[in-house]
Amino acid sequence: ETGVTQTPRHLVMGMTNKKSLKCEQHLGHNAMYWYKQSAKKPLELMFVYNFKEQTENNSVPSRFSPECPNSSHLFLHLHTLQPEDSALYLCASSPGGEGTYEQYFGPGTRLTVT
Amino acid sequence: GEDVEQSLFLSVREGDSSVINCTYTDSSSTYLYWYKQEPGAGLQLLTYIFSNMDMKQDQRLTVLLNKKDKHLSLRIADTQTGDSAIYFCAEMGADDKIIFGKGTRLHILP
């Protein structure tokens, strides 16, 4: 148990659906991250939030929309996805500031777009 | 650009030492990491080393850093079946962005 939880663990959605991924951290951290892990590719950073402010958007298509209502919760809203968006989506958190180097990951949401 | 390279597969006999190697390109890297991913789970931070160190030991794990050659290695002593996983090397650059390699799948032979 790393203190970072993600729901749902598995999600199958059609290309016209709208769904959301949820991440919650119980570590008192101030920074939260979304990563995408596709087969045969390195882990890709998508978004970074520091103290609820988005500080990084790594050229992610607008069909992915993050939301960080407070330092403990992070959402990834999904709409009109493509089959190539099927991947494992990992959330991570870190203390933020000088403690940014230590990231703790959740178990991930396995997303399949049909 | 920034790049982290590691071999994709490694097979080791149970009880032997495993050595997983990684090379990176960003000379301004501040921290270097090893993550472990078991089937169905997220990435678990195993250990990390600050760029001004050349070695770090933590129980069965030894990390060696050759900053001149931009080479990082992870040695697992007395490899066990529970060590079977994918191991990701990663670096943090001066911009605090973490870049990951593609992972090395460690297979334990009986």
- The count of β-strands of chain B is 11
β-strand number of chain A? 11
Distance between the termini of chain B: 40 Å
Question: What does the largest sheet of chain B look like?
Answer: 6 strands, mixed
**C-alpha Rg of chain A (nearest Å):** 13 Å
Roughly how many Å apart are the termini of chain A?
31 Å
> What is the beta-strand fraction of chain A?
over 45%
Oligomer: heterodimer
Q: Average pLDDT value of chain A? A: 89
Q: Beta fraction of the residues of chain B?
A: over 45%
Give the H and E element order of chain B.
EEEEEEEEEEE
Helix proportion range of chain A: under 10%
Structural category of chain A is mainly beta
User: Largest interface here, residues on each chain?
Assistant: A-B, 20 and 22 residues
Number of helices of chain B: 0
| Biggest sheet architecture of chain A | 7 strands, mixed
Low-confidence stretches of chain A: none
- Show unreliable segments of chain B: none
Shape of chain A: globular
Please give the count of helices of chain A.
Answer: 0
In one word, what is the shape of chain B?
A: globular
Fold blueprint:
The complex is a heterodimer of chains A (114) and B (110).
Chain A: E1 4-7, E2 10-13, E3 18-25, E4 31-37, E5 44-50, E6 53-57, E7 64-70, E8 73-79, E9 87-94, E10 104-105, E11 109-113
Parallel strand pairs in A: 2-11
Antiparallel strand pairs in A: 1-3, 3-8, 4-5, 4-9, 5-6, 7-8, 9-10, 9-11
Chain B: E1 4-6, E2 9-13, E3 18-24, E4 31-37, E5 43-50, E6 55-58, E7 61-66, E8 71-76, E9 85-92, E10 98-100, E11 104-109
Parallel strand pairs in B: 2-11
Antiparallel strand pairs in B: 1-3, 3-8, 4-5, 4-9, 6-7, 7-8, 9-10, 9-11
Descriptive overview:
The complex is a heterodimer of chains A (114) and B (110). Chain A has 114 residues and is mostly beta strands. Chain A has strands at 4-7, 10-13, 18-25, 31-37, 44-50, 53-57, 64-70, 73-79, 87-94, 104-105, 109-113. In chain A, strands 2, 4, 5, 6, 9, 10 and 11 form a seven-stranded mixed sheet that branches. The radius of gyration of chain A is 13 Å and the shape is globular. Chain B has 110 residues and is mostly beta strands. Chain B contains no helices and eleven strands. In chain B, the strands form two sheets. In chain B, strands 2, 4, 5, 9, 10 and 11 form a six-stranded mixed sheet that branches. In chain B, strands 1-3-8-7-6 form a five-stranded antiparallel sheet, with no helix packed on it. In chain B, a hairpin with a 5-residue loop joins strand 9 and strand 10 (98-100). The A-B interface holds A 2, 4, 6, 40-43, 45, 56, 90, 92, 100-108 and B 4, 30-31, 35, 40-45, 48, 88, 90, 92, 96-103.
